[in-house]
Amino acid sequence: MYSYTEFDDAFLAERNAQFRAQVERRIDGSLTEDEFKPLRLMNGLYLQLHAYMLRVAIPYGTLNGRQMDQLAMIAERWDKGYGHFTTRQNIQYNWPELRDVPDMLDALAEVNMHAIQTSGNTIRNVTADHFAGAAADEVADPRPVAELIRQWSTDHPEFQFLPRKFKVAVSGAPHDRAVIKAHDIGLRIVERDGALGFEVIVGGGLGRTPMIGKVLYDFVRSEDLLPTLEAIVSVYNLLGRRDNKYKARIKITVHENGIEDIRARVDARYALIRAQFTGVDQQMLARIEADFAAPAFVEKSIAPFEAAYTNDPVFRAWADTNVDAHRAPGYAIVSISLKAHGATPGDATADQMRVMADLARRYAHDELRISHEQNVILPHVHRADLPAVHAALKDAGLGTANIGLISDIIACPGMDYCALATARSIPIAQEIATRFDALKIEHDVGPLKIKISGCINACGHHHVGHIGILGLDRAGVESYQITLGGDGTEDAAIGERAGPGFSADEIIPAIERLVMAYLDLRQDPSETFLATYRRLGLAPFKSALYPEAKADAA
Amino acid sequence: MPKAFKPSVVTANALLEGDVVYMGASGWVRDLAQAEVLTDEADADIRLIEAQAQADTVVGVYLAEVDPDGPTPTHFREAFRAKGPSNYAHGKQETA
């Protein structure tokens, strides 16, 4: 992991002291709310429906046991004993009080964490593949370059007041686990003639106008990456639609100007600024890469794993769904589900955080990752240790075997917490998970991604859900619109709207009809929901969703 | 045609705690049942201005429509604000 320098520590201390003074001035009346709001947002502090919310960055989703323990301590001391892991690899505390936030930030700084640029019209927390450094299909670990981008973008003087927020995601593998095509800039590490470089994708994004990003450059050399990023953001900063916040994202800029025009402008800007990048960034990158050296993997028998897999069906079910291939022999990647049936997606109690921290230290080379799917990853676990890890997770209520299945739902906080939301997301996710658990068909249904957003801003990524659910306010009543066929991987696609929305009472039966129709329509159990949808299109699923319309037409 | 005024309460979030507050007859209260129901538009405008002047105490002041019987919220958003989230017994329901 990246180790902070004295410069990093001093920067955080100074920044926190500055914010502490700003909070004091707000409380004593020296600052108005209009003056204070942009300052608190620059430090990740929102005012939500019931309370303040502090959004803490977990850069590229990576943290260690000490950091997870500190997150648990903060949850207990200044919040209500839990935290909410988000689709942006952040953790959110839902109940802090204003005067406590400076102390929370100081506690975060003790473990090299912060809330800088988790809000505001700036380059947000850089996200990455949650299997980074471990995945069997990885070309290179994306985290060193993500850290370099974090350092370049933090407090970048030109990019603190962009037209809108700006999101960068990095993947180091051909299989996209970071949804890079739905980010303002998506980077994929690729190899050409033995050298590593970057495919640069721009103009993706969900929200009000969902768009899949376009390839700006198919190969950018490592030493040219930062000047390229600087040129892109600079062009966007100039062209972005500041007249209309709904049109202010780079996806609109790319759409309105065309990718060729954007490329020409970026090329021109790049030519102007390239000389400013003297190679210091590459020296920094080399130091960062050393920090991300692979742990010392050990060789030992996997007999305990094989015995448990043969003899314990509960362990086998968990291993089949929650364990992925690792690049090192004998090792595995463990995904810890924060989606127990009926639980709030992404929430973990302080005790659960401590269990995960302890497991990371004991069995996973002290590494944890947060996934954009709101789960926690132990990236380097020897297969021999999987039975012990599973037993500890079960005891902590973290042993749910549902990764990638119908109850592994992404859900934004929705109107239960968020001031922007137009309907609730969490109860819908809870009810779907509970219903399919009762039906006992979750494993038979197989891979199926349901994603729920409580408003058009799409924090729940509903556009790229195989089944997407969007909560809306229809004349003072919560209404849920379904989209089908979305995909957040390298084959990224925006889901197709199925038809009129459903009330809160109608949405669970509608999802059940949809899934039952899939079970009838699939060629065999190996054909996934998404594959069946792509083969047959919307019509048969629409008929299942709206049987009355079918009867009326007959 | 301008929208007809409906009975409302003045609501906001407390500056220090962030939680939902309502303007009562003699100050800010936490419980919607103790809020002052405004049935006259001119009175409501005056109370709104008075509330907005208390920026050292509250944030984001606005009028929320209510059914005066109670009063109770007429929109689900205000119902959630008055009660708390639906996944935990947190917020106002914690102490109700």
UniProtKB/TrEMBL annotation, chain A:
<dbReference type="InterPro" id="IPR051329">
    <property type="entry name" value="NIR_SIR_4Fe-4S"/>
</dbReference>
<feature type="domain" description="Nitrite/sulphite reductase 4Fe-4S">
    <location>
        <begin position="408"/>
        <end position="545"/>
    </location>
</feature>
<keyword id="KW-0479">Metal-binding</keyword>
<keyword id="KW-0349">Heme</keyword>
<feature type="domain" description="Nitrite/Sulfite reductase ferredoxin-like">
    <location>
        <begin position="52"/>
        <end position="111"/>
    </location>
</feature>
<dbReference type="Pfam" id="PF03460">
    <property type="entry name" value="NIR_SIR_ferr"/>
</dbReference>
<keyword id="KW-0411">Iron-sulfur</keyword>
<protein>
    <submittedName>
        <fullName>Nitrite/sulfite reductase</fullName>
    </submittedName>
</protein>
<dbReference type="Pfam" id="PF01077">
    <property type="entry name" value="NIR_SIR"/>
</dbReference>
<dbReference type="InterPro" id="IPR036136">
    <property type="entry name" value="Nit/Sulf_reduc_fer-like_dom_sf"/>
</dbReference>
<feature type="domain" description="Nitrite/sulphite reductase 4Fe-4S">
    <location>
        <begin position="119"/>
        <end position="269"/>
    </location>
</feature>
<dbReference type="InterPro" id="IPR005117">
    <property type="entry name" value="NiRdtase/SiRdtase_haem-b_fer"/>
</dbReference>
<dbReference type="InterPro" id="IPR006067">
    <property type="entry name" value="NO2/SO3_Rdtase_4Fe4S_dom"/>
</dbReference>
<dbReference type="GO" id="GO:0046872">
    <property type="term" value="F:metal ion binding"/>
</dbReference>
<feature type="domain" description="Nitrite/Sulfite reductase ferredoxin-like">
    <location>
        <begin position="345"/>
        <end position="395"/>
    </location>
</feature>
<keyword id="KW-0408">Iron</keyword>
<keyword id="KW-0560">Oxidoreductase</keyword>
<dbReference type="GO" id="GO:0051539">
    <property type="term" value="F:4 iron, 4 sulfur cluster binding"/>
</dbReference>
<dbReference type="InterPro" id="IPR045854">
    <property type="entry name" value="NO2/SO3_Rdtase_4Fe4S_sf"/>
</dbReference>
<dbReference type="GO" id="GO:0016491">
    <property type="term" value="F:oxidoreductase activity"/>
</dbReference>
<keyword id="KW-0004">4Fe-4S</keyword>
<dbReference type="GO" id="GO:0020037">
    <property type="term" value="F:heme binding"/>
</dbReference>
From TrEMBL, chain B:
<protein>
    <submittedName>
        <fullName>DUF2849 domain-containing protein</fullName>
    </submittedName>
</protein>
<dbReference type="InterPro" id="IPR021270">
    <property type="entry name" value="DUF2849"/>
</dbReference>
<feature type="region of interest" description="Disordered">
    <location>
        <begin position="73"/>
        <end position="96"/>
    </location>
</feature>
<dbReference type="Pfam" id="PF11011">
    <property type="entry name" value="DUF2849"/>
</dbReference>
